Amino acid sequence: MTPLTVLRRLGYALGLPLVLVAVWWFASAGSTSPFWPPLSTIVAKFPGTWFSGRMTEDVLPSVVRLLVGYALAVVAGVAVGMLVGLSRRVRAFTEPTLEFFRAVPPPVLVPLIALFLGYTGSTSKVITIALGCVWPVLLNTVEGVRGVDEVLLDTARCYHLSRRSRLVHVVLRGASPQIAAGARQALSIGVILMVISELFGANRGLGASIVQFQRGFAIPEMWTGIIMLGLLGFVLSLVFRLVEHRALAWYRGLRDANRGA
């Protein structure tokens, strides 16, 4: 990759964010509205708001709850999705029920889960995130498993591969692009549910901090919380893309080879 190519890609990646920040900066400059403070004021408030203890007391616990709930959803979604995708009988038996629960918006479950598990503490928030994230992973796993080439499965049987080897090296690997697509959707849902679950009675966390700033009429600080949330989502998305890029290198090579054929 040449330096010119790197600069061009950086330009494409940073161009729109820089334009949006510039528009926001000049559009809000000189604003006297208490709800629409100048961006310069928000930027000035950012370090004092988040780097004086709130990173460890609010942001870090939120991220840990998100990662734990997300990991539970991925493990459960892949395991159940494999079971449903591999068996027609199990699929026929569970599909109506799965479609019903998938249609229930996860934020609706937040007050119900909080009633049973409590508004404070991490358990109810982790369960909320896991229940919301599991559906895209599960449904994409089912579709991915169903789409595995039958010829590959027959070939694996002809070579007397064990059931575990067929599941890991043929079924799971063949379904992994679809599983990654579901995991990517689930990550966005997890960030949303992380915030929503902290709006109901929580006293610590990123979402709870934003609400406390709003109720305390600390509007610039509230805006810094929204920006922090966007930055967190961006970093998580970047990390996911790096992991996905490495894990699905074989798939990109296969796709490129097919396109070149």
Automatic annotation (TrEMBL):
<dbReference type="Pfam" id="PF00528">
    <property type="entry name" value="BPD_transp_1"/>
</dbReference>
<feature type="transmembrane region" description="Helical">
    <location>
        <begin position="186"/>
        <end position="202"/>
    </location>
</feature>
<feature type="transmembrane region" description="Helical">
    <location>
        <begin position="12"/>
        <end position="30"/>
    </location>
</feature>
<keyword id="KW-0812">Transmembrane</keyword>
<dbReference type="GO" id="GO:0010438">
    <property type="term" value="P:cellular response to sulfur starvation"/>
</dbReference>
<feature type="domain" description="ABC transmembrane type-1">
    <location>
        <begin position="59"/>
        <end position="244"/>
    </location>
</feature>
<keyword id="KW-0813">Transport</keyword>
<keyword id="KW-0472">Membrane</keyword>
<feature type="transmembrane region" description="Helical">
    <location>
        <begin position="63"/>
        <end position="86"/>
    </location>
</feature>
<keyword id="KW-1133">Transmembrane helix</keyword>
<dbReference type="GO" id="GO:0005886">
    <property type="term" value="C:plasma membrane"/>
</dbReference>
<feature type="transmembrane region" description="Helical">
    <location>
        <begin position="222"/>
        <end position="243"/>
    </location>
</feature>
<dbReference type="InterPro" id="IPR000515">
    <property type="entry name" value="MetI-like"/>
</dbReference>
<dbReference type="InterPro" id="IPR035906">
    <property type="entry name" value="MetI-like_sf"/>
</dbReference>
<comment type="similarity">
    <text>Belongs to the binding-protein-dependent transport system permease family.</text>
</comment>
<keyword id="KW-1003">Cell membrane</keyword>
<protein>
    <submittedName>
        <fullName>ABC-type nitrate/sulfonate/bicarbonate transport system permease component</fullName>
    </submittedName>
</protein>
<dbReference type="GO" id="GO:0055085">
    <property type="term" value="P:transmembrane transport"/>
</dbReference>
